[in-house]
Write a structure and sequence with these properties.
Helix content of chain A: 10-25%
Number of domains of chain B: 1
Strand content of chain B: 25-35%
CATH topology of chain B: tRNA-splicing ligase RtcB
Helix content of chain B: 25-40%
CATH architecture of chain B: Alpha-Beta Complex
CATH topology of chain A: Archease, Possible Chaperone, Chain: A, domain 1
Number of strands of chain B: 19
Largest interface: A-B, 32 and 42 residues
Distance between the termini of chain B: 40 Å
CATH superfamily of chain A: Archease domain
Number of domains of chain A: 1
Number of strands of chain A: 8
Shape of chain A: globular
Structural class of chain B: alpha+beta
CATH architecture of chain A: 3-Layer(bab) Sandwich
Shape of chain B: globular
CATH superfamily of chain B: tRNA-splicing ligase RtcB
Largest sheet of chain A: 5 strands, antiparallel
CATH class of chain A: Alpha Beta
CATH class of chain B: Alpha Beta
Strand content of chain A: 35-45%
Oligomer: heterodimer
Chain lengths: 142, 478
């Protein structure tokens, strides 16, 4: 799951997930919840599928790259992630994510937009195992 | 970390540990109370640790926490010994502000504002996922835009050549290199030219409600009651991606050059290094996109007003008062200990404020000084100042940029629960058109500090001279 944390200038999230797949799913849900006002939108329908292969030096960089990829996809194609499937993920150094994103396309007639995101940042970013869960905090520059 | 009061409007963080220089923060006692609670003072001290920094690491009165460098931070670096850092510029390269003035008196047009605002909202795409379909640039056009900035916009029919005289750097940073821009950045920016974005970006109609320096106001084309427009936007996804692309390179560069970073987000490279020059040339592309963007939005503003109010240019007299960057790195010449030196000045959430007589001030304003534009929140006021010749040299002719947030977005949403901010502002005579009501809640006036306090310190510290105050009558927000 994800929750929003208090942050003066921007938006910060905390992810608390059972496993790696859920971590990335929760991260994607958090991005969508910032971009769109889901309560005021029609439900997202998985209309398209995008394969995603990311490699990074460490798990934190991988998570930032993943979030920035979602922001890029939204900015350029209006893609809004609804679900994902992981084929392979490695949260060590080096790290990788191979998977498939399923999502909808932003349509102002159906979806209420909320806040644009400039980027996911490294600020205070820590990915850790705690009490059998994966936890991470990420700050987004809005 | 020690903090010493120097004057009523300035504080010193004395050099200690790995700091190369002191920190100086411009603030009064009241502002310092809230500044102390925010981690930004530590950030001022961290910036002071970077190699080749000239003079103190500076904080403006609107300083608050940022990524690596604080927002409201100014730092100058020697070109040979010093560094350049994307964090000292920000993700939104050349986020900045443009002020337009008109020949119209607000009392003559006040009743027509509520119909102009929605028309503006329709003509200037604002908010998530909005774009102008008629402004999608192909690759070669993107290249020309990134290398020519506002000049490109004028050449393509957006505005007048005269507008360029009143833009910082005449709307183009020379030396931009489009070949350094990633395909991702080009794609992200492709459909975003002429758009505002969301968050704290806006176009605001207002009027001059108080004149502090009548002669200076007159010289820059402002009069009591005059209708004005402020445009606040930057380089959109194009700039954000350029910053992101370069952050990784800079992290590696800092390690390779053995630069001590008290905070990972201060990643940087020596200014003269390949990585440093690469970032600088790429940053200039981002900056030029933002100059072009504000020029295009100005054109949409003129077009909308002409259409809605049936006025010709000689009737409305819309002109650019000035256009400033508030997230940028520049090479400028400054007097340091009596010698003229070239400095790489980083301003993140801070504005250049050249005084009267400076050769880079537009000729028409040369004996007045460079206008400094400081927007406040959407409910209260904004200010126009000019650079002050009595400013201390170590401040690199800089000023504040805005008010800074007081409440987090979460707290702002909580504070506005059950309230209808747009209706409240309408009852105060301010018409708001917004893409997202929740953004309006997050951006409601009291989510921000009082910009009057910030500007007051800037004035008393001799950084810039207050000329006029503006009040809003209409706002469009993403």
């Amino acid at each position: 799951m994800f929750e929003f944390l208090d942050h003066t200038a921007d938006v910060a999230i905390r992810l608390t997930s059972r496993d790696e797949e859920e971590l990335f799913r929760d991260a994607a849900s958090a991005v969508v919840a910032i971009l769109l006002d889901l309560k005021a939108s029609e439900p997202l329908v998985p209309r398209s599928s995008i394969p995603l292969r990311l490699e990074a030096e460490d798990p934190e960089s991988l998570l930032v790259d993943f979030l920035n990829e979602l922001i890029f996809l939204f900015d350029t194609t209006g893609f809004v992630a609804r679900d994902l499937k992981v084929t392979s993920v490695h949260l060590h150094s080096p790290a990788h994510f191979h998977g498939q994103l399923a999502g909808d396309t932003f349509d102002p007639a159906k979806h209420q937009a909320k806040t644009e995101i400039k980027a996911a940042t490294f600020h205070g970013l820590e990915l850790r195992k705690s009490r059998g869960r994966l936890e991470a905090e990420v700050v987004f520059d809005l | 970390m020690k903090l010493q009061k120097v004057t009523d409007t300035s504080w010193r963080i004395p050099r200690e540990g790995r700091m190369n220089v002191d920190g100086i923060v411009f603030a009064d006692e009241t502002l310092m109370q809230s500044i102390r609670d925010d981690k930004c003072l530590e950030q001022v001290a961290n910036v002071a640790c970077l190699p080749g920094i000239i003079g103190p690491s500076i904080g403006m009165p609107d300083i608050h926490w940022g990524y690596g460098f604080p927002i409201g931070g100014v730092a100058g670096f020697d070109l040979d010994e010093g560094v350049i850092s994307p964090g000292g510029v920000g993700y939104d390269i050349n986020c900045g502000v443009r002020l337009l003035s008109t020949r119209l008196h607000v009392d003559d047009v006040r009743e027509r504002i509520p119909s102009l605002v929605p028309a503006l909202f329709g003509n200037v795409p604002s908010g998530v996922g909005k774009s102008r379909k008629d402004l999608r640039l192909n690759r070669s056009e993107s290249r020309r835009m990134a290398e020519r900035g506002a000049r490109w916009a004028v050449e393509n029919g957006f505005g007048e050549a005269e507008d360029l005289e009143y833009i910082e750097e005449r709307g183009c940073l020379e030396g931009a290199d489009f070949d350094l821009i990633s395909e991702r950045a080009v794609e992200r920016g492709r459909s975003q030219l002429g758009t505002l974005g969301s968050g704290n970006h806006f176009v605001e109609l207002g009027f001059v409600d108080e004149v502090y320096e009548p002669e200076l106001a007159d010289r820059i084309g402002l009069f009591a009651g005059g209708l004005t427009a402020i445009i606040h936007t930057g380089s959109r996804g194009f700039g954000h991606q350029i910053c992101e692309d370069n952050l990784r390179l800079m992290q590696k560069a800092a390690a390779r050059h053995g630069i001590y970073l008290p905070d990972r987000q201060l990643c940087c490279a020596p200014f003269r290094s390949a990585e440093g020059q690469r970032y600088f040339a790429a940053m200039k592309c981002g900056a030029n996109f933002a100059f072009a963007n504000r020029q295009v939005v100005t054109h949409f503003f003129r077009e909308t007003l002409e259409r809605e109010w049936g006025l010709a240019p000689r009737d409305h007299g819309i002109r650019v008062v000035y256009d400033v960057c508030h997230n940028i790195a520049k090479v400028e010449t400054h007097q340091i200990d009596g010698t003229s030196r070239e400095v790489c000045v980083h301003r993140k959430g801070a504005t250049r404020a050249f005084p009267a007589g400076h050769p880079l001030v537009p000729e028409v304003y040369r004996d007045v000084g460079q206008p400094v534009l400081v927007p406040g929140d959407m409910g209260r006021y904004s200010y126009v100042l000019v650079g002050n010749p009595a400013a201390p040299d170590f401040a690199f002719a800089s000023s504040c940029h805005g008010a800074g947030r007081r409440l987090s977005r979460k707290a702002a949403v909580k504070a506005t629960r059950g309230r209808h901010i747009i209706k409240e502002l309408a009852s105060e005579g301010i018409t708001v058109a917004a893409a997202s009501r929740s953004t309006v809640d997050e951006e409601f006036p009291h989510a921000y500090k009082d910009v009057a306090e910030v500007v007051d310190v800037v004035h008393r510290a001799n950084l810039a001279i207050k000329v006029v105050r503006l009040r809003p009558v209409g706002v469009i927000k993403g």
